[in-house]
């Protein structure tokens, strides 16, 4: 008998352009085991290949935790070789979220610790309920953040602020994380999912070609100097300006109607 799935994909809205990826491993507060990581990798690969998808929202099925990070109980019994194999598997899972070609949002309620916070950081936007708790506590158990935390948080909030989070392993309230810049939007407890889906719907109403190309330009340009970044932007502009979406967008504006994006 197959084990029950630890995540679920749900389409929202007319056309199903917004997809909710729900983490659902209640017995471990969504801790990331080897099998769970493999499910995340497979799900994000399907989403990345689906041209209908315009935005992804990562949520949890459980109020107490978004994700508490690595499954340390599983890791405790690993040999060094197993640890290295597990590392490769989990790294693919985080990259699966990070490399989604469409905007990704995380809706954080409860605990987002270690790898859980890194899943959120792998998304483009983070919406957190006021009752959430976030942390990168890895140095407290003898490792370093390995799901992108050292790089993604630094790019969001800068060196010294990231150092204060990682070196101390401290836990932050959602309000503190928002003030730091690690959370983009702070909402009432229990409403992060609703708000993230609302923002995703706003995104999905825009040209899918333009949004995808804008995200790619931002991602590729982030690690370059300004001159190189502007060339990347020009490439994205050219790839969009001669698309069916651009023609439809201009026509819809002139005719004062809602665009019907061809998505190509």
Structure, described:
With 264 residues, the chain is an alpha/beta fold. It folds into two domains: 7-204, 2-enoyl-CoA Hydratase, Chain A, domain 1; 208-254. The protein contains eleven helices and ten strands. The protein has helices at 34-48, 72-75, 80-98, 115-121, 149-157, 159-168, 174-180, 192-204, 208-221, 226-241, 244-254, and strands spanning 7-12, 18-23, 55-60, 65-67, 104-108, 111-113, 125-129, 133-135, 172-173, 185-187. The protein starts with 6 loop residues before the first strand and ends in a 10-residue tail after the last helix. The relative contact order is 0.11. It comes from Ornithinimicrobium pratense. InterPro entries: ClpP/crotonase-like_dom_sf, Enoyl-CoA_hyd/isom_CS, Enoyl-CoA_hydra/iso, Enoyl-CoA_hydra_C. GO terms for molecular function: enoyl-CoA hydratase activity.
Features:
264 residues; alpha/beta; 2-enoyl-CoA Hydratase, Chain A, domain 1; 2 domains; 6-stranded mixed beta sheet; 4-stranded mixed beta sheet; 11 helices
Biggest beta sheet summary:
6 strands, mixed
CATH topology of the largest domain: 2-enoyl-CoA Hydratase, Chain A, domain 1
Question: Radius of gyration, rounded?
Answer: 19 Å
Look at the helices and sheets and give the structural class.
Answer: alpha/beta
- CATH-defined superfamily of the largest domain: 2-enoyl-CoA Hydratase, Chain A, domain 1
């Amino acid at each position: 008998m197959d084990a029950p799935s630890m995540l679920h994909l749900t389409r929202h809205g007319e056309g199903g352009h917004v997809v909710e990826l729900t983490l659902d491993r209640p017995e471990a507060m969504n801790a990331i085991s080897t099998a769970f990581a493999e499910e995340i990798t497979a799900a994000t690969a399907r989403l990345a290949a689906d041209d209908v998808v315009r935005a992804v929202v990562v949520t949890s099925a459980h109020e107490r935790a978004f994700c508490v990070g690595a499954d340390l109980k599983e890791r405790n019994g690993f040999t060094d070789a197993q640890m290295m194999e597990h590392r490769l598997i989990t790294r693919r899972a985080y990259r699966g979220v990070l490399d989604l070609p469409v905007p990704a949002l995380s809706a954080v309620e409860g605990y987002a610790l270690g790898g859980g916070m890194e899943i959120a950081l792998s998304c483009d936007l983070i919406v957190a309920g006021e009752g959430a708790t976030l942390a990168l506590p890895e140095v407290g158990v003898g490792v370093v953040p390995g799901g992108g935390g050292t790089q993604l948080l630094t790019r969001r909030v800068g060196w010294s602020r990231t150092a204060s989070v990682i070196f101390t392993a401290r836990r932050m309230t959602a309000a503190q994380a928002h003030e730091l810049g690690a959370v983009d939007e702070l909402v009432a407890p229990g409403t992060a999912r609703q708000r993230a889906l609302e923002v995703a719907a706003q995104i999905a109403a825009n040209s899918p070609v333009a949004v995808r190309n804008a995200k790619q330009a931002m991602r590729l340009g982030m690690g370059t100097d300004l001159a190189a970044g502007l060339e990347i932007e020009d490439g994205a502009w050219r790839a969009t300006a001669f698309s069916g979406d651009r023609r439809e967008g201009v026509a819809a504006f002139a005719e004062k109607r809602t665009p019907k994006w061809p998505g190509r």
